[in-house]
Design a protein that fits this description.
This protein is α+β, with helices and mostly antiparallel strands. It has two domains: 231 residues, Rossmann fold, CATH 3.40.50.300; 122 residues, Nucleic acid-binding proteins (OB fold (Dihydrolipoamide Acetyltransferase, E2P), Beta Barrel). It is built from eight helices and 20 strands. A six-stranded mixed sheet has the order 6-7-8-3-9-10, with helices on both faces. Strands 13-12-11-14-20 form a five-stranded antiparallel sheet. It has a five-stranded antiparallel sheet with strand order 15-19-16-17-18, with no helix packed on it. Strand 12 and strand 13 form a beta hairpin. The longest helix is centred in the middle third of the chain and has 18 residues. It is globular and about 75 Å long. The relative contact order is 0.11.
Length: 363
């Protein structure tokens, strides 16, 4: 895919503080791209630079082959949906959506037609005459979305678009947003701190921390193949063990780890040498737990005791205390319907995981 948005060497300083620190990024036309990071990491500042509300200290921004670095917001082929939605409380839904077109002097008949199309797209045609205070949070979010897309921007920027919604509504709205983006073909750039939201929505994700991108990739790449400890820990839940490389074969590492209480085998090629300190990471869902010792000799296996447990309906979570008192988090799918638990507190268990489930982190 051809690069549609090109960010090159963008930095933004506030005094001596670098809110955005020399970042570069390419986004293809029609992507739903997420910038993911915690509070204060620089993601919203970068979004505001894309929108034209902030000028970068250095670097350039191109959209569809045009350098827009110094263009004001109203000259850019961009619209922005704010976290607060910024809906006018005294206007009806239809008038809120039409506002931008009215300011541009679009003919009344065209406005009515485009408002109807936008409200159909977000499934709010029957709510056109209502005021914002007569709508649910999810409906207000869709009004803001309709108002943002009615001007047919080439790029839609969304700042924490689902943050104000409850969990179930947020999950449902994620799929609605994906369907709308797919139907329109507009390039979406989403800023969020919610890792689940980014994983669900995005074609690709950039993980940001202290003004820099730590990793850019698909949700699968970010989750399964994190490049460093921060990304591994920020995306989902993970167990980490420090260790030392003991042996290297062509496609296998053997790592001695006091924290895990055993040696750990990992598959894959890694740029390491014998004796090097590394961090080993294993996701909770990749770990097997049971009362019997595993049969597979290639698996890493450790004994422990159920220190704590939680039942979440579809999942059971176990905190397993190893002999060295370290805690390992294990999640197990509840595939069978049962009124009794598979494991109880203080049960002695074995945990194990396969070599291909291990991520080796060098930073």
């Amino acid at each position: 895919m051809k690069d549609f948005i090109r960010i090159r060497g963008i930095s933004k300083y506030f005094g001596d503080f670098a809110a955005v620190d020399d970042v570069s990024l390419d986004i293809a036309k029609g992507e739903l791209f997420s910038i993911l990071g915690g509070s204060g990491c620089g993601k919203t500042t970068l979004l505001r630079i894309l929108a034209g509300f902030e000028l970068p200290t250095k670097g350039t921004v191109e959209i569809d082959g045009v350098d827009v670095t110094n263009q004001p917001p109203y000259q850019r082929p961009v619209n922005m949906m704010f976290q607060s939605y910024a809906i006018f409380p005294h206007m009806s839904v239809a008038k809120n959506v039409a506002y931008g077109l009215q300011k541009e002097g679009v003919a009344r008949t065209d406005i009515e037609k485009r408002v109807d199309q936008a409200l159909d797209l977000v499934q709010l045609r029957d709510f056109a005459k209502r005021k914002p205070d007569q709508l649910s949070g999810g409906q207000r979010q869709r009004v803001a979305l309709a108002r943002a897309i009615i001007k047919r921007p080439k790029v839609l920027l969304l700042d924490e678009p689902l943050a104000a919604l409850d969990k179930k509504l947020r999950e449902r709205t994620q799929f609605e947003l994906m369907n709308i983006q797919d139907e329109l073909g507009i390039t979406f750039v989403v800023v969020t701190h919610d890792q689940e939201e980014a994983m669900t929505l995005s074609t690709r994700i950039a993980v940001m921390e202290q003004g820099r991108f730590l990793q850019i990739g698909t949700p699968l790449e970010i989750y399964e193949y994190p490049r460093n400890r921060f990304v591994a820990d920020f995306i989902g839940t993970i167990n980490t063990f420090d260790g030392t490389v003991q042996q290297i074969d062509e496609n296998t590492l053997v790592i001695d780890s006091e924290e895990a209480g055993t040696t750990i085998t990992a598959l894959g090629r890694h740029d390491v040498v014998v004796g090097q300190k590394v961090c080993v990471a294993v996701r909770p869902e990749k770990i097997f737990v049971g009362k019997d010792e595993p049969d597979n000799s290639e698996d890493t296996r450790v004994r422990g005791v159920v220190h704590d447990l939680g039942y979440l309906g579809n999942l059971s979570l176990y905190r397993i205390k190893l002999v060295n008192d370290n805690i390992v988090l294990v999640s197990s799918q509840n595939r069978r319907r049962s009124a009794s638990r598979f494991l109880e507190w203080e049960d002695e268990v074995w945990i194990s995981w396969r070599p291909r489930s291990v991520a080796v982190l060098l930073e």
